[in-house]
Amino acid sequence: MIKIDGTDYNVEWVTGTLEQTADILNGENSGRLQGTKSMYLEYIGTFFNTSVQIRRAAACTDAEWDNLYLTLANPVNAHTVVLPFGQGTIETEIYISQVKRKFISRKYGRTLWEKVYDVTFTAIDSQWLAGDEEIKGYSEEA
Fold first, then answer.
1. Which pTM was predicted?
2. Disulfide check for 102: which of 4, 74, 114, 138 has CB 3.0–4.6 Å away?
């Protein structure tokens, strides 16, 4: 089960495909100091971005699979998703910068798609602010 925008889908993460990056972004005042040439960093925070393949589970209907694709491809400003993170999960607001699927065939009036979608989730807000001890949305419960 994967939860997106509060809806549980009969899909699963494909083992070995989930990649997370911790993008540590700095503000516009960051840069080299003129006198000492040392680096001054004005942190915005850490943004955890995820690329993953989602696989259709046996219980997922054609309608649910197609609806998931449309949900992922919908150009809205934010989706809420629960992702694997550390030893638990992170619930976060993301936008989807890419979703990809592959056509298999069209037979007997039915279009068949591969049972895997490639998705890139991009964090909207920093999940970890400079100076904070906790990561926003992180839960050790899987």
1. 0.82
2. 114
Strand partners, 103: 113
Whole-angstrom Cα distance, residue 118 to residue 51?
7
Tell me the three state secondary structure of residue 76.
coil
Neighbours of 109 (CB within 10 A): 5
77-110 pLDDT tens trace = 999 999 999 999 999 999 999 999 999 999 988 8
Q: Which two tokens stand for residue 32?
A: 């080299």
d(CA 126, CA 73): 23
Spatial neighbors of 1 by CB under 8 A, at least 6 apart, are 8, 9, 10, 11, 12
* C-beta separation of 127 from 92 below 8 A: yes
Lowest mean pLDDT among 4-13, 56-65, 105-114, 119-128: 105-114
Tens digits of per-residue pLDDT, 18-37? 999 999 988 888 888 888 88
